[in-house]
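Attaching the record inline, Q. Sequence:
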Amino acid sequence: MSGSTARSTPSRYRRGRTAVASALAFTAAAAGLWSGLGGSSSASSGVQAPDHVVVVVMENHAYGQVIGSSSAPYINSLRTGGANLSRSYAETHPSQPNYYALFSGSTQGVTDDGCVTPGFSSAANLASELIAAGRTWASYNESLPGQGSTTCSSGSYAQKHNPWFGFRNVPTSSARTFAQFPADYSTLPDVSFVIPNLCSDMHDCSVSTGDTWLKNNLGAYATWARTHNSLLVVTFDEDNRLSGNRIPTVLYGQPVTAGSSSAGTYDHYDLLRTLEDSQGLTAHAGNAASASDITGIWAP
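Structure, as predicted:
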């Protein structure tokens, strides 16, 4: 699979951030303050280190369609009780390349929503990095026919929302059904993704339907996360193609300052970088290597 995918609005900000970072790096190196320019972020980044992180990816809605909407009372309760990224952006259109960007720091040449050949890439990604570091990973996929199934579609399940199947360095068995999401949250992996089906993620059904699904299926985890050093992230793959790809992203749990909002501009690569740094990973996949950690929201 080949081809490149056009970046959206955030690329302007990334170029600016990269230029500033390069200038600062050169100045610091000249002053003998840095041992090199190839280092990676660690605990010094200021990102918290949750015991468990659960990332939920919803579908195809712009920031203003969800944040502040009476159709999404639960997501907005997470926003007010957690942290809101008011300038969060997806990378491109359509859906599938954004999932690859969030998971691996690159669209991996994927430009459409077609079913991919399982294991077509060996590129680094969040799961492969976690596994290499001796940490734990899993995805929980609603309506997946069975654990590890690489089928293209089945009822309201779609492989296009499951980028882990594209990588041969991620065990297919780590893709679990949502029915396997543990009732004992302390047994969750260090990092996991939850992928609702095409109705529950707001793709085919309403904002209200997706919001209710989140409350009913992950509300108990969110409550638990507030007192167990754990984190829930709810983000979207892309907007509705009408809002410059500005998407809702909220974070909730004990590591987050309640009622906070970051002034930064972020995209999927920045979220990936933040997830990597929250786990103390020394490597960063693809464009996450030049991305910025999310700041201004973490509890002291």
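The first strand starts at residue 52 and ends at 58. Residues 1-44 have pLDDT under 50 and may be disordered.

More tomorrow.
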